Amino acid sequence: MPRNSVVYVTLVHVVVDVLAVVSAVLLAYDLRFASGLIPYEEYHPFHNYIGYLAVLCLATPVVFAANGLYRPRRSISWLDHIYTIFNSASVATAIAMVSTAVIWRDLDASRLMVALAWAFTVLALVLGRLVVNLVQTDLRRRGVGVERLLIVGTNEPAHLVLDRVRHAPHMGYRPIGFVGESAECSVIDGLPVLGTLDSVGQIVRTHQIHDVVVAMPTLSQQQLLELVTQCTDEKVNIKVFPDLFQFMTSGVNTGDLDGLPLISVKDVALRGWNLTLKRAMDLLVSAPALVLLSPLMLLIAVLIKITSPDGPVFFIQERVGLDGRPFQLIKFRTMRPDAEKETGAIWATRDDPRKTRLGTFLRRFSLDELPQLINVLVGDMSLVGPRPERPVFVEKFRRTIPRYFDRHREKAGLTGWAQVNGLRGNTSIEERTAYDIWYVENWTLWLDVKILLKTLFVVLTDRNAY
């Protein structure tokens, strides 16, 4: 993003954040002492809280800046954004409370008032950020504040980057063209090949490029260093899109065996309290969900028998789970009873003729997966984890994809990191494996919560489910 645009957007965020804090404290005071909705024994004049409000208005931008909330970050998810705002607002509130207590020791403050102010501050800051981002997104869609993007590479990784950019206009990138190892192809996917690696610096200057994405895994370390050197004086942002193997092996560790240097792959298995926390969440969610969703599941079962009376309600199939152990996965049947009689084991396709009419609807909204809550309850699966495959596919993929079996170091899941990032159905198994391994290497309880929340959004909006 151009420097003047960064300054302008940062100032807007700071002003909106301060206004949000002031509004939240005023609303909390009004609710506590002026509205009459909450009884009180002693009335507190508002000037008692002016010092607290002043410190909070100063502390909030400082804490937000320290946590990176004023940096231009186009790709962060809203769930992560809200989580960071919550933590930052809580720290700013604590700073304001401690500072007020130290500076004005005799000040009598209402704890309920402060608690309300904290809650309203978090809510107001989130709403303020949402409004600013909605306006900024709309402006980007109209071509205001967009960044000109150059893609280094012409093969599949470069095509993937271009596809993601085109499907996310709200991020504000305008792809200008490609850079290849040779200039043989003049146009790719509607964009020109502007030159070769040796001319990157000139291309950046001529076309006023703001961001360069290197999507050429075949580049040597020396070539990458030369490319970065060319761009050093042009003040552009350089991002490197790693190949899948680099992505999957990001968790290597170094060590030694009695002085003998060794490189080992990161242990991805959950252990101890982490394993207990994950299982506790599975039980706390799956048991109530089965009770609450039982009327819907009963209705689906009846509809399956009415629309396709020749087959069973449930489709039970062997899948591979934790540590390669097989288990019986339960789904609502969405295909004819003899669906694989002639074809054998194959994946479903978008216009698969084997699906029933009701099955098409169930798959579209992932309602056929609801019985897998039983698998979660009994411990065969987890709410979140790599999606389980059939043994025939597991044997095939573990022979051809590096570290594929590492995804089985954790329980299979109802939903996963790959699925909420658009990798559902018949998509690249290499890319899905990379996302699955990243998940098991970077697991946190918050990551599971985020994936579950994103799953709800994906189920309602994704048109690629089949």
Secondary structure elements and pairings:
Layout: H1 3-34, H2 50-66, H3 78-103, H4 111-141, E1 147-152, H5 156-166, E2 173-180, E3 187-188, E4 191-196, H6 200-206, E5 211-214, H7 221-232, E6 237-240, H8 244-248, E7 252-257, E8 260-265, H9 272-307, E9 314-320, E10 326-332, H10 357-364, H11 372-378, E11 381-384, H12 391-400, E12 412-415, H13 417-420, H14 429-441, H15 445-461
Parallel strand pairs: 1-2, 1-5, 2-4, 5-6, 11-12
Antiparallel strand pairs: 3-4, 7-8, 9-10
Helix pairs in contact: 1-2, 1-4, 2-3, 3-4, 9-11
Describe this structure in words.
The protein is of the alpha/beta class and 466 residues long. The protein has 3 domains: 3-141, no CATH class; 147-241, Rossmann fold (3-Layer(aba) Sandwich), CATH 3.40.50; 272-461, no CATH class. 51% of the residues lie in helices and 14% in strands. The chain contains 15 helices and 12 strands. The strands form 4 sheets. A 6-stranded mixed beta sheet has the order 3-4-2-1-5-6, sandwiched between helices. Strand 7 and strand 8 form a beta hairpin. Residues 255-260 have low confidence and may be disordered.
